[in-house]
Amino acid sequence: MAEIPKNTSGDSRGGGGGGGRGFGRSRRVRGPNDGPELSADGSPSQELTEKVVFINRSAKVVKGGRRFNFSALVVVGDKRGRVGIGLGKAGEVADAIRKGGELARAHMVGVSLKEATIPHEVFCHFGGAKVLLRPASPGTGIIAGKTVRSVLESAGVKDILSKSLGSKNAANVVKATLGALQQLRLREDIYRSRGMVVKKLEAPGLPPVA
Asked: What is the pLDDT of residues 173-202, one digit of tens each?
C-alpha cells in the first residue's frame, strides 16, 4: 500500500472522492525526523505503523443539497505482536482517519507469534467473512489479500499462507483476521496452563566409530 502524508484533507462535498474507494492507502504515524512517541506515563513507546484499509463515503440528502460523511477503517500495530483496529467517522477524511487511529491504539491486543510466522493453523469467521491462516516456512512471505495483509503486517507476521472466504466486506474480514490471530497459542503457554513442563528433545547420538 502506498503512503499518504498526515496533512491529507477531504472535501466535505465529496469532490474527488471517487465514491470513497480511492483512499484505501496507508500512512505512517510519525515521520523519520520526529522524536520518540511518548506513552501515557511519559516514557518512550515503540513506534507504531498505521494503515488505512478502507474509506467509505455516505450521503444524506438535506435541504439545499447533499451532506457527506466519511468512515475510515484503520489498523495500527508495532510489528512485534501487538495490533489493533478502529473505525473512525467524521465529516472530513483526515478527521475520520485520525479518529480511527486513536480507537485502534486504544484497543491494541497482543498475539502469539512463532518467530516470523504463526505457531499453528487457525480458522475464524466474523459475520459473513471467513479467514484461514496457516504457518509457512521462512522466505514464503505473506500470501494474502490486501485487507488480510494489512493486519498481518501490522502484527509482525512475515511468512504465512492465508485464504479469505465468504464476504469481502473489509470490516468483517479485518475483524475475522484479528480474531484468528487472537486464537493463536504457543506450546509453552498450553503446557503452562496445564501445569506441565516442556521437554526439550535431544538429537540422538551417533554410534561410536569402530
From this structure: 999 999 999 999 988 888 888 888 877 766
pLDDT given at position 28: 43
- 101-104 LR contacts (CB < 8 Å, sep 24+): 101/29, 101/50, 101/74, 101/76, 103/74, 104/50, 104/74, 104/75, 104/76
The predicted-structure confidence for 111-129, as pLDDT tens digits, reads as follows 999 889 999 999 999 999 9
| Mean predicted lDDT score pLDDT of the chain | 80
81 phi-psi bin (left φ>0, alpha ψ -120 to 50, beta other): left
pLDDT value at position 167?
Answer: 93
Contacts for 54-58: CB closer than 8 Å, 24+ residues apart:
54/21, 54/24, 54/147, 54/170, 54/171, 55/20, 55/21, 55/23, 55/24, 55/93, 55/96, 55/97, 56/20, 57/14, 57/17, 57/19, 57/20
Distance of CA 141 to the CA centre of its chain: 16
Nearest to 39 by CA among 86, 105, 107, 110: 105
